[in-house]
Amino acid sequence: IGAILCVFVLIFWLELRGRDRENRHASVLAQAQKYSEGIEADMASRIPALRRIANRWSVRGGTPKEEFLADAQAYHEDLPGFQGIAWVDKDFYVRWIYPLWGNEKALNLNLGFEEKRRTTLEQSRNGNKLLMTPPIDLIQGDKGLIVYFPIYIGSRFDGFISAVFNVDQWLGHVLQYHGVKAAMNEYTIIVEVDGETSFQQLGEEDLGQTEFDAVVTTTVLGHKFSLYCRPTGVFFKQHHATVPDIAAGVGFVLSLLVSFVVYLYQKVSRQASRARVSNIALANAAREQKATALELKRFSTRLSLAAKAGKIGIWEWEIASDNLVWDEQMFDLYGVPHTETSVFETWTKALHPEDAAQAINLIREAVDGNAVFDTEFRITLPDGTVRYILAMADVERDAQGKPIRMTGVNWDITERKHDQETILHMANHDALTDLPTLRLARDRVSVAFAVAQRKNLQSVVMFVDLDGFKDVNDTHGHDTGDAVLREVAKRLLACVRQIDTVARIGGDEFLVVLAELHAESEAAFIAEKIIKAISAPICFDGEKLTVGASIGIASCPSTCVEIDALIKRADDAMYQVKKSGKNGYAFADPHP
């Protein structure tokens, strides 16, 4: 009997371990996906800023060297990972570059002598489109990627804006920014670009391959990025599930107890038979029974200690009598005094209102034999605290299949849930202003479109670019600039409704999504309100600072579906405001 029970416990333990392995592999894959999406998002945030340098050059018919270097310096300082930002003339010579320090060899270098650079330059010039080189060896000695933005003044080709990425520095920044600080040492990363290893995290070569390795592939500017994510020993230590081992330990203890009880029963029966022969045998049997009772009590105590050490509450529900028996740990988990009588209603009252119906329905289905009770739900303690519970249970039935009792465990997983929510928030919000990122803003625009289509209303996207922010940043420093951005974010939120969205999508660029508008005049009113709010002086560290706002507005009727096209139209309209004097707003052409 003991052997059979131990086999069942072993099978149950293997099942739990299998689920644990699946969860860990899913965690590694999710982290790899997050890093891959971070690479895409980071590149997507850099391209518009660099494209504006090229567009400004084309619109003005040229750019003074001092202005170009100033813009390049701002982007270089705000966006880590650039080896340098340069202007390459039409003959493929590097004429201007920032920073010069560390890039001295690149100045006046003819890029046409190297095949990969020359091929990309020619394709970019001939197709009048931005292109990125495959991985190349930089003259500074590291691996790099170069993005070229062709410049045309009218029909005349006037060279390129070149952005040189040091792959180690760039991807190191991206992975650190999009990683969770507490989990940075839980993974090692390799990134291949077009099949060539371009980034390898230090220490990766010391790790052997594991069954939890994950690879995610994405395309960035026409090039294939493959990100390999491998968990470290820290990961396995942090994500080691104790439930399978605890369940196995409890199961083996119960198996031993049952086996021991059977053994004792057989032993007592033999002694009772002998007792009929002599009084001495009867006395010996009585002493052995007393010893057995003591031993059973000791085993029961050990079982209780094992459950308490694992912070697992154990319960048993007599279905016919509706009598619910809790151990001490269950009372502690639910914040119920140990003196209170536990019945089925005690459990149902503690369930969170949003989870109660599902949890009660699942336990009823399990009793009817139509489901397995293995779920998560929230409970509300008497003091109002909400906790997350992982629950599993098994139903005992009689020979006719009628349910007799249900035995299960509860495990408090609140801390793990809170960690997951924190990770999700950090992935979708700007660290400085706590505003949504462009990725989340796109989702909000999609929701606004859906509402507009359902209610036959309009949605509006505003592209807000601060005027004079660079002067504040250069004159007063980045701390002051950060304070200005935080204050601007507060003022933008104060100007819109709760159903609207304000997102930060660049250094000093914001996106405002207005939902459920009846006419464009409502958008104009809000734009004027934003300009007035942002133009008000900002007090910081004893000084009054002022910035303005140039706003491009693109409206979307109920039939609009192209999100990126709408944002691009708002961006173009904002540039028209910049050209016509700044600190104002303009609507995009409804028929671009």
Structural class assignment: alpha+beta
Percent of residues in beta strands: 15-25%
Poorly predicted residue ranges: none
Residue share in helix: 40-55%
Total of DSSP H or I helical runs spanning 4+ residues: 16
**Which of globular, elongated, flat, extended, rod-shaped describes the shape?**
elongated
Mean pLDDT: 85
State the end-to-end distance.
80 Å
Gyration radius over CA: 34 Å
Protein model, in words:
- It is a single chain.
- The protein is of the alpha+beta class.
- Helix content is 49%, strand content 25%.
- The chain contains 16 helices and 22 strands.
- It has helices at 2-60, 65-78, 115-127, 167-178, 233-238, 243-275, 279-309, 328-334, 344-350, 353-367, 414-428, 438-455, 469-476, 478-495, 520-535, 563-579; strands at 82-88, 94-98, 131-132, 136-137, 143-153, 156-166, 187-193, 196-200, 214-220, 223-231, 312-318, 323-326, 374-380, 386-397, 403-412, 458-467, 501-504, 509-517, 538-540, 543-545, 548-556, 585-587.
- Strands 1, 2, 3, 4, 5 and 6 form a six-stranded antiparallel beta sheet that branches. Strands 12-11-15-14-13 form a five-stranded antiparallel beta sheet, with helices on both faces. Strands 17-18-16-21-22 form a five-stranded mixed beta sheet, sandwiched between helices.
- β7 and β8 form a beta hairpin.
- α6 runs antiparallel to α7 (279-309) and α13 packs antiparallel against α14 (478-495).
- It is elongated.
Structure summary:
With 592 residues, the protein is of the alpha+beta class.
